[in-house]
Amino acid sequence: MALQLNDDEVHTPARLSATVMVLRDGLQGLEILMVRRHSNSGVLGGAHVFPGGKLDEQDCLIQPGSLDQPVEALHRRLNETELDHSTAAGLHVAALRETFEECGLLLHPGLAPEVPAQLTRQLSEGMGFMDAMRALKLPLPTSSLHPWSRWITPRTPSVS
Fold first, then answer.
1. Coil, strand, or helix at residue 128?
2. What's the helix, strand, coil split of the chain in %, to 5?
3. Exposure of 72 by Cβ count < 10 A (0-12 exposed, 13-18 middle, 19+ buried)?
4. What is the maximum span of the chain, computed from C-alpha positions, in angstroms?
5. What single DSSP character describes residue 1?
6. Which of 19-23, 41-45, 84-88, 119-123 has the lowest mean pLDDT?
7. Are strands 29-33 and 22-26 parallel, antiparallel or unpaired?
8. What is the Cα–Cα distance from 46 to 50, expressed in whole angstroms?
9. What digits encode the pLDDT tens for the residues 95-142?
10. Is 100 left (phi over 0), alpha (psi -120 to 50) or beta?
11. Ramachandran bin of 150, using left for φ above 0, alpha for ψ from -120 to 50, beta for the remaining angles
12. Residues 83, 59: Cα–Cα separation, whole Å
C-alpha cells in the first residue's frame, strides 16, 4: 500500500520527544505500565501507549543542581552526537515530566507520599515542572532513566 503525503508532511522535520517504558518486577513476572489515550483523541484515540510526549522549550533550560546527573553525562548516555548538551538533558526532563503529567508517576526513589500531590498543585497554579521540583528541593531523577532505543514516529497510524 502506498501512502500519499502532501508537501507540508514531507518537509516537516520530526519533533524531538521522549517515551518511557516503565517496568517493574511483579509477583507474576515483569509488569509494564501503559496508559490508554482518550477515545476522542484525534491521534490514536483509545490506543494503549507508553507515557511520553514532545520536548518543550522549558525542558532544555537546565539550572545548576536541578538534575541528579551532570548534563554532559546525559549527553553521553544518549549517544546522539548531533544533539547539543542542553537538548540531550532536556529529553530526559521531557521523559520525566510527561510521565508525571500523563499518569501521575514521579520516578523518584524514596519519595514522600505527599510529594506528587504537592507537585500537582504547583503545576496547576502555573509553575513549570523544573521550577516546581526545585521548590520541593528535589533534583530531577534522570538516573531513573536508561536510554534504550531511538524511534521515529510514523506520520500516519497503521491500519488494522
1. coil
2. 35, 15, 50
3. exposed
4. 53
5. -
6. 41-45
7. antiparallel
8. 13
9. 999 999 999 999 888 889 999 999 999 999 999 999 999 999 999 999
10. alpha
11. beta
12. 14
Q: Which residues are CB-contacts of 139 (< 8 A; sequence separation ≥ 6)? A: 65, 66, 67, 68, 133
Q: Are 137 and 66 in contact (CB under 8 A)?
A: no
Cα-based distances in Å from 91 to 85, 95, 126: 10, 6, 21
Q: Under DSSP, is residue 18 helix (H, G, I), strand (E, B) or coil?
A: strand
Q: Which three cell numbers, joined as nine digits, stand for 72?
A: 554532559
Strand segments, DSSP code E, in 52-146 are 52-54
Is residue 137 left, alpha or beta, with left meaning phi > 0 and alpha meaning psi from -120 to 50?
left
Cell of 21: 517504558
